Amino acid sequence: MSYLAKKEVYKILILGLQASGKTTIIKTVTEGHIPIGEEQYHPTIDYERKRIAIAGQEIVIFDLGGQTSFLDRFTDGLSDLIFSGVKALIFVVDSKEIKDITLAKYYLDESLKKLTQYSPTASAYVFQHKIDLIPGNLKDEVRETITDHLFVGIPVHLRYFETSVFTNSIFRAMGEVFAETAGVNENLKPLVDTFIQHNDAEMAQIFTTAGVPLIKIENIENFEHISLTEIRKVFNAVAQNLANSTDQSSSSIFFESNNRVFIVNFTESGFVLFLGFQKEKLLEKHELLPSLYSKVLAFSVQLANLTE
Questions:
Q1: Does residue 248 lie within any of the structural domains?
Q2: What is the mean pLDDT of the chain?
Q3: Same domain, 88 and 43
Q4: DSSP code of 202?
Q5: Are residues 177 and 192 both part of a single domain?
Q6: Domain region containing 128
Q7: pLDDT at 238
Q8: Burial status of residue 273 (CB atoms within 10 A of its CB: 0-12, 13-18, 19 or more)
Q9: Residues 62 and 159 in one domain
């Protein structure tokens, strides 16, 4: 029986003041849309929904309009509808709009009150967004100003991230939200750890198909040295292979650098297994690449069966 088999749809709320970047965050992490230049801003009217699947779990992201007229309705007359059945709440604060921090604090407090009332077990996050727009010498001052205002009198534990859609920071932050919401860390990470130990993998990660990292593997080299652009090139290559294949259930790709062998496997469960091995260790173990490739494919099937 699958540990992740759930019929209910999990709900994530993302809210904050108008123009804080909520819709762009969603488009970036779910569609791979990285803004180019000064794209025209279209404010969200009322709210919009985005459905995604993470490791077999269906998730709906509610993008709540940030105009005060909407926020007043969400935290008052519509609060039962909006805040019931929530797994995670993300409150987005615009780093460059310090003048609005008092107003942001008001709606954060109101949102957390309703979250505690209607979804007391939900997780809550604050994203200090658009950090790329803050000069380096002012980052500490801006961070302290925002956190000093926002965290006063907060009755629940808030996890805090500094984010930008132009760096991997937004993917790491949303990856943690998705992983906790879908139960990926609790259910999949032990299996990945075991595979690493038995097969001497040097690096390992599970991503969504949009490139959002879902789990972090400790005690081995991670992906800090691989840029988001490089990851997307790999994803695009595998996606193209899938499009050209008669087998639409899954697709894998093998490639190598001077010192490493990489295997990427896309599964129909909606995640991507990314594994790296040192060539030197493979030679020491007399591990042939076809054998290694078969092991990875078998492991991918095991993960897929867990999330059916």
A1: yes
A2: 81
A3: yes
A4: S
A5: no
A6: 10-182
A7: 63
A8: buried
A9: yes
Give the number of other CB atoms < 10 A from CB of residue 287: 17
Q: What CATH number has the domain bearing residue 223?
A: 3.30.450.190
Q: Lowest-confidence range among 86-90, 202-206, 213-217? A: 213-217
Kindly report the number of other CB atoms within 10 A of residue 281's CB atom.
Answer: 14
What is the total count of domains within the chain? 2
75 and 153, same domain (yes or no): yes
8 Å CB contact between 102 and 149 = yes
Do 194 and 251 share a structural domain?
Answer: yes
Question: What long-range pairs does 50-54 form, CB within 8 A, spacing at least 24?
Answer: 50/26, 51/9, 52/208, 52/270, 53/269, 53/270, 54/178, 54/179, 54/181, 54/182, 54/184, 54/208, 54/214, 54/270, 54/271
User: Rounded to 5 degrees, what are φ and ψ at 231?
Assistant: -60, -45
Whole-number pLDDT of residue 219: 44
Between 36 and 13, where is the model more confident? 13
Q: Are residues 178 and 60 in the same domain?
A: yes
- Distance, CA of 151 to CA of 145 (rounded, Å): 10
Would 165 be classed as within a structural domain? yes
Closest CA to 271 of 164, 167, 162, 185: 185
What pLDDT shows up at residue 308? 58
**For 169-198, what is each residue's pLDDT tens digit?**
888 888 889 888 887 767 777 888 888 888
Nearest residue to 263 (alpha-carbon basis) of 279, 248, 286: 279
pLDDT score of 108 more than 90: yes
In a domain, 42, yes or no: yes
Residue 5: pLDDT band (50, 70, 90) is very low
Instruction: For residues 159 and 212, state if they share a domain.
Output: no
> In terms of domains, do 197 and 153 share one?
no
Q: Which is more confidently placed, 228 or 86?
A: 86
